[in-house]
Each structure stands twice: as C-alpha cells, then as structure tokens.
Amino acid sequence: MEPTEKENHNPPDIVLYGGKGGVGKTTCAAAHAVGLSERDASTKVLVVSTDPAHSLGDVFERNLGDEPTALTDSLAAVEVGSQRGQEAYRMVVETLVDEFRSAGLRVGEDELERLFEAGLIPGGDEVAALEYIARYTDSEYETVIFDTAPTGHTLRLLDLPEVLGETFAVASEIQQRVRRVAKTARSMVFGPEAYWETRDDSEELTSLRDRIATVDSLLHDPSRTHFRVVLTPERMSIAETERLVSRLKTANVPVDSLVVNRLFENDQACSCERCCADAERHEKRLQEIQRRFNLPVRVVPELDTEAQGALSAIGPTLLAVGDSR
Questions:
Q1: Pairing state of beta strands 143-147 and 45-49?
Q2: What is the number of structural domains in the chain?
Q3: Which end of the chain has less neighbouring CB within 10 Å, N or C?
C-alpha cells in the first residue's frame, strides 16, 4: 500500500482477527501490525484489543490503556476498556432523565443509578468495541487492526448495531412523547409562548446512533473491512471456525482469509514417533481445512512466540496471499 498523505484523510483499512479463544488471535493481530510498520515505517498502524481478557500488552511487553500508546514511530496499540461502553449507556439514560425532569417529573439520583444498573442496553464490552471502530474510521492511521474477543463476543458485536438501533428508536420515541406532553402542559400556562423555545438535547444520542450505524455499514464493506478467522489444526477449532464463517457470511461480513496458526512442521526431520505423528496429523488437518473452506489459507508454523523477533517472523506470512495491507 502506498503511504497515504495524512492531509488527504483517506479512511483506514480495517482488519479484524477473530476466532475461538486460545488460537492465537492476539499474536496474529500484533504480528500483522508489526509486519506493516516494518515494511513501511511511514505507514501509521494501530492495533486494538477488544477482548475483555486483554493480552495485547503482554505480547508487546508494555502497559496499554484505552488511548493509543506509541510502540514505534509508526505503530501504536490500545486495549479497549468496557467503561467506554458503559459511559455510552449512561449517556442514553441521562438524556432521557433530563427530558423527564424538563417535563416536571421528579427523578432522583438514586433512581437514576437504578436505571443505569438495570443495564437495559446489553454488552458494555461490545458497545466499547463499536465505539473504538467508529472512533478510528476517520483518523491519522492508515490501517487499524482489531484483536477481537472469542467467537461468542464477536457474534454479539455483529448483532449489536441492530439491537442498539431498536434501543435508540425507542429512546427517541420516549423523548419525543415527553417533549410533547411538556409543551402541552406549558402551553396551558404560558400560551403560544411555550412553543417559542426550541432545544435539542438529543444531539449526543443522535451522534452515538449515527456512529453505530456507520460502523454497521463499515463491517459489511469489503473495500474497507477484512475479517480473518484464526484457527489451529485441531478438530474442535475447525468445527467452531466453520460455524463462525457461516455466521459471518450470513451477516454479509467480508471474510478475507483463514489463518491456520501453530501448524507443526517437522522441519528438523526428527524421527521420533511423537514428532512424526504430530506433523502427519497437522498436515491432514490442513488439507481438510483447504477442502472445507472456499477461502485463502495463511499458514503460521508453530513458533516460540516468546522468542525475540517472533512477531517479525510471523508478519510476512500475514501480509502474503496478494495482500496489499
């Protein structure tokens, strides 16, 4: 990819790594980011962990927060906190409560807290992930790579825009009803003057709704989004991958490729029974994956991921198969 001039504000490519827990999504996302930044130091890359059980900081051996931490001049990393999703929910509740209060309804702080704790908007972690995707779709970064949570969280993430869309629609309807009641009551006291004052306290609510809608559209745009499913050459991982790929295709989320991680290759020509059996089993599993999925397959051999330079060694594999990102 040719370096993008920052002043052009070209939208970044979005790459999401997903799959079963424990298959190495974090390592692959980190290696992809490192590979991009090492290939072209002028390319600004951000890698984001949306997994509640963060390990991205462990991979880079850095303390990460919910704001980008520079790892090199061209590479930064973030670990999303669920607090951001909870803040989005609190904003929705507070917006509605403000409407109730403006209509003369008494809503105390204790009642406000009870509404917040009721958790009417589900998935704080997923809301936070959507917020971060929205946040970096128009940014200085040319590629944003997401290390997503395990399959169940990812599927909820894909369903959430529709769920939130319904929630925002209900919230807006309640807001409008309360305003109409309040204006009618004020008109009985002040007459036509009650309608002179116009206000729009729903700007933040509308903004959040629009951002979520933008992300939903982005996740289905093959020109911008590339979802990569990581799996290991094991039966359970293959079965879960099949379900995830099917779900992604049903949701019209563009699947870029499969990443078969930790493939054991007996390069040392070890003649021990275990090494020969593992190499043969993994080769058969790889062939099965290639038969079952009509997708490009990237193979990452089993490596010591704690060894210095491991991420740099994996990176080129993840940038192959005609990939310009």
A1: parallel
A2: 2
A3: N
